[in-house]
Amino acid sequence: MSEPFAAVDVIIAKRERRELDDAQIDWVLDAYTRGVVAEEQMAALAMAILLNGMSRREIARWTAAMVASGERMDWSALERRTTDKHSTGGVGDKITLPLAPLVAACGAAVPQLSGRGLGHTGGTLDKLESIPGWRATLSRQEMLDQLREVGAVVCAASADLAPADRRLYALRDVTGTVEAIPLIASSIMSKKIAEGTAALVLDVKVGSGAFMKDRDSAAELARTMVELGSDAGVRTVALLTDMDTPLGRTVGNALEVRESVEVLAGGGPGDVVELTLTLAREMLAAAGLDAARDPAEALRDGSAMDTWRRMVRAQGGDPDAPLPRARHTHTVLTPADGVLTRLDALAVGVAAWRLGAGRARKEDGVQPGAGVEIHLKPGETAVGGAPLLTLHTDEEDRFGPALQALAEAVVIAPEGSSPPLAPLVIDRISA
Ligand code: URA
Prior knowledge:
By secondary structure, the chain is of the alpha/beta class.
């Protein structure tokens, strides 16, 4: 079959800062999926996009072409309205676990396709897989049944969901082209649009433990994704939230499940509860269900917990089974008296990863019990010699590298001299 374009002409056009037209974009992604555009040609095009950017029209068309490379799910047979959340990834970010059942308990359907973690930020599926028996892979019919009967499903995306993104993301990973905002935004949004949710709340993390280290680039990513969602007919809003310090008091798979269950039981750390409720209200409002129930009430009256237990059981998990625990622990003591003013998210994330909570290559497994328990959060009074962190791992020789990652993680200021804490929710961006 003769091809309407030559890949090299598309690459040169972007290299020369020209806008690609719709036909070029549709063709290049389709031809890449078919193997007609070679990996080295797509790598060159991704680099040209990283250096020269894309217009709003180009990004929207690029995203639509990635959606069209696979199936687009359709939940119109459901009686409930669909709404979902996506986080750009952070340390201790277990919010999906309490959030999905909470929003379902308030009357919406949450069809969340999720991923496993790579690097220092954990993946939602890795956390849920620490629950004995829980399985991530569901058929489309099982998803539909669970959405009807329980209202929330969190499971693995099938290979047919935006397959062009799957290949392109792996290529970007090894060609220094991950950080292009048009490519990140289209990658995330193509999967969420293909997932078929009608409404979407984006939690764009900013800070040391996040993909986006500064507020301006996080805001640009958020705006680009909100525009993409709106252009595709998905009601989308974004919150910029702090990721300079870990969320909650646990980092690591089973440890984070335990903390999420505490939140569902009406307790849990204040920052996790605050973000869960804020995102739940946004998800319900985006779905037009804000007048339904107050999510705080669904945490108090046990209905969110009840939905969680049914959601875990529906996927083969036992919500009453003891969670795995690591074989060894090591406690790090607070070095001085005063007030803790900094607990660096990236350092804690890398420590948890080195303890075995995360993977270095996508083929690796994770230790369900590994991670870091946080005894002291920023703003709290530090007492020299009291427990600061507890490290958990199955392999004792991992403590050394984890402790190295934590060497500069903590700042303690004299009592009374500490600056006020930064707010958790930094900004809100809507269409
Ligand atoms: N997550 C994605 O799914 N894609 C990116 O490009 C970056 C983060």
